[in-house]
Amino acid sequence: EAGVAQSPRYKIIEKRQSVAFWCNPISGHATLYWYQQILGQGPKLLIQFQNNGVVDDSQLPKDRFSAERLKGVDSTLKIQPAKLEDSAVYLCASSNIGGAGVKLFFGSGTQLSVL
Amino acid sequence: QKEVEQNSGPLSVPEGAIASLNCTYSDRVSQSFFWYRQYSGKSPELIMSIYSNGDKEDGRFTAQLNKASQYVSLLIRDSQPSDSATYLCAVSSYNTNAGKSTFGDGTTLTVKP
């Protein structure tokens, strides 16, 4: 079974530039999550999709971050414009159902450096 | 107060010893509890889940849950150098926040040969 695919693996940009990350979840997984993990901290949920609808985006900085999940499969997370404090690893995860008690499968992440 | 708090670490134990990792949480309605292992430069991987009070054993790993004390722990018996990683505690609830998992900041474990 293929895992969660993410790209790119690394990205270096200057502040105020824009960047986009892509995620393809495990086949059949309806729920997709984007987490931000700053060095030395645990993952923080940015947005959760159930199929192509948003379930939770309460911690997404909507003035600069946007995400979409077209057709309930692939997802893209965008940052525009980027700030220095956005330097982090962006993790995509999926699960076959939503709600509590579910196991999250994580992709390898995208390490973003904002200079 | 953070929703999920873990020992800041780092924790160092000799090979073959028992490593004890602790986690407390603030939301009393939390119902599901998880331990993820994260190797340096890698993504988190689920190693244990526990839903009811008491102990749950899986090989060398034992998760312990005490909902009254809002406390969950992970014991690693016969620790191996390959257990050296950051261990993340995660908590979720069916009732709030669409059941999302909230993570602690992790405890870094080093097992010395």
> Segments of chain A where pLDDT lies below 50 for 5+ residues?
none
N- and C-termini, Cα separation of chain A: 37 Å
Care to count the β-strands of chain A? 11
Query: How would you characterize the largest beta sheet of chain B?
Result: 6 strands, mixed
Radius of gyration of chain B: 14 Å
The helix tally of chain A amounts to 0
Distance between the termini of chain B: 37 Å
Which percent bin holds the helix content of chain B? Answer: under 10%
> Which class of secondary structure composition applies to the elements of chain B?
mainly beta
Label the structural class of chain A.
Answer: mainly beta
Biggest sheet architecture of chain A:
7 strands, mixed
Structure description:
The complex is a heterodimer of chains A (115) and B (113). Chain A is mainly beta and 115 residues long. Helix content of chain A is 0%, strand content 48%. In chain A, the strands form two sheets. In chain A, strands 2, 4, 5, 6, 9, 10 and 11 form a seven-stranded mixed beta sheet that branches. Chain A has a four-stranded antiparallel beta sheet with strand order 1-3-8-7, with no helix packed on it. In chain A, strand 5 (44-50) and strand 6 form a beta hairpin. In chain A, 37% of the residues are buried. Chain B has 113 residues and is mainly β. Helices cover 0% and strands 53% of the residues of chain B. Chain B is built from no helices and eleven strands. In chain B, strand 4 (32-38) and strand 5 (45-50) form a beta hairpin. Chain B is globular and about 40 Å long. The mean pLDDT of chain B is 91. The chains are: A mainly beta (115), B mainly beta (113). Chain A binds chain B through residues 33, 40-45, 48, 55-56, 58, 91, 98-104, 106-109, and chain B through 4, 31-32, 34, 36, 42-46, 49, 51, 88, 90, 92-94, 97-106.
